[in-house]
Amino acid sequence: MRSRGAARLAAVTVTSGLVAMGAIAGAGAAAAEEVPQHRGGAVATLGGLQTYDQAVIRDNGTSQEVPAGLFEMSVEGGGTLKTYCIDVHNPTQKDAKYQETPWSGTSLNANRDAGRIRWILQHSYPQVNDLAALAEKAGARSLTEQTAAAGTQVAIWRYSDGAKVDAVDPQAEKLADYLYKSARNTAEPKASLTLEPPAVSGRAGELLGPVTVRTDADSVTVTPPVDSVTSGVKIVGKDGKPVKSAGNGSRLYFDVPKDAPDGSAALSVQASTTVPVGRAFTSETRSQTQILAGSSESTVSATATADWAEKGAIPALSAEKSCAKDGVDITASNKGDAPFTFRLMGFKHTIGAGASQTVTIPLQEDQPYDFTIKGPNGFEKRFKGVLDCRTEGSAIGNKAQPASEPSPASAGGTTGGGDLAETGSNSNTPLIATIAVAFVVLGATTIFLLRKKQTPPESSTED
């Protein structure tokens, strides 16, 4: 399993000026349509660690006691999620917003034991709420909700972080050992709701799409563009009839009037469902990656956009984090009759008429990014986020002091030493000198604030 070294990468913001169709585009990111890398599903706010006991992490001759157990999140639109952490040495941030994320956009992508973590979730608390039966399987005398949650979290950390960690309570430790030794690889669960692709383009007067619904919900509600009454843009099926609801596999189209001026629109779909156990949740802040242990009936949603024009290049852009490539994949398609050309990170990219291409923007671990791509007819898309693909597995700092309530900034992660809750490392971690490099890219300034990053050796955990 890949792990992050104790020295952290400094924040890096990338703001790029871009060229489209031979014209220079200024930075102007604030006015651009922001395109999040969230492909759909549940969006929730972290409420904190709710059900937990204590665990001890040991590393390089030091040990630290930390709270271990279940977090609770409130879902936008209604619903509650229960999650465990899969990023033990990172802190949590109070009220951080989380988004349902495929494993490919998290540290689970490079973790050959990711499927074992899902098995643990399916075979322990809270999915198994008969604690007497669970204790019997584990060879434990008895389990409470707190010790069951702690034992489950400890077993997960052994696979997610390669951590040398034990539960403080002996019965919780028996559960952790049972789950760790019994776990088997299982497949990644499918997203609760996505639209594929998230962006389409074409000419006015045509059906733009299709956009395919992927969901485990019985049905989803389809919401047309907010200005559909004035613009005349409708969301229809292949038969051209307006669609108000859809199911898994349904194909949706943007029906754009032939006389519509060049422009863009968005559709959204929403449903109420239980999010599959094992779905990952990430935050755009520096807050621990979480994995779903249980879900009430919750609101899930997804959005897709369409751009159209009368002539010239007609681009459609979407972005997705790729931990396998250590960067962000930007997929650009062009349904126009002229090439679409843009510059990004100092490189020129041209998408031919009728063609599609995926461009990977390489990033450093923990690197925030913020860049804008401009095109013809006022086309402008802004992409922002942070690359978080590794867990940390190095020094853990001074021993934590026991507390009846974990602090909001560190619950479920390591605590106690210096500025650990803010940096993910202890106060003795050496800071690498910051290098500022300023340069001009076609009229816009790109600034990188980098810290040299220490690369830890690869490690893996065998059962």
List the defining traits of the structure above.
6 helices; disordered C terminus; mainly beta
Structural commentary:
This protein is mainly β and 463 residues long. 12% of the residues lie in helices and 40% in strands. A six-stranded antiparallel barrel has the order 5-6-7-19-18-8. Strands 11-20-17-13-15 form a five-stranded mixed beta sheet, with no helix packed on it. Helix 1 runs antiparallel to helix 3 and helix 2 crosses helix 4. The radius of gyration is 24 Å and the shape is elongated.
What's the arrangement of strands in the largest beta sheet?
Answer: 5-6-7-19-18-8
What fraction strand? 35-45%
Instruction: List the total number of helices.
Output: 6
Mean pLDDT: 80
Uncertain residue ranges: 1-31, 393-463
List the helices and strands and how they pair.
Elements: E1 3-4, E2 18-20, E3 23-25, E4 33-34, E5 43-59, E6 62-75, E7 80-85, E8 97-101, H1 114-122, H2 131-138, H3 145-160, E9 164-167, H4 170-182, E10 193-196, E11 199-202, E12 207-215, E13 220-223, H5 228-231, E14 234-236, E15 245-246, E16 251-255, E17 263-273, E18 280-283, E19 290-295, E20 298-308, E21 315-322, E22 327-334, E23 340-344, E24 347-351, E25 356-362, E26 368-374, E27 380-386, E28 391-392, H6 420-423, E29 434-441, E30 444-451
Parallel strand pairs: 1-28, 4-27, 11-20
Antiparallel strand pairs: 2-3, 5-6, 5-8, 5-9, 6-7, 7-19, 8-18, 10-12, 12-16, 13-15, 13-17, 14-16, 17-20, 18-19, 21-22, 22-25, 23-24, 26-27, 29-30
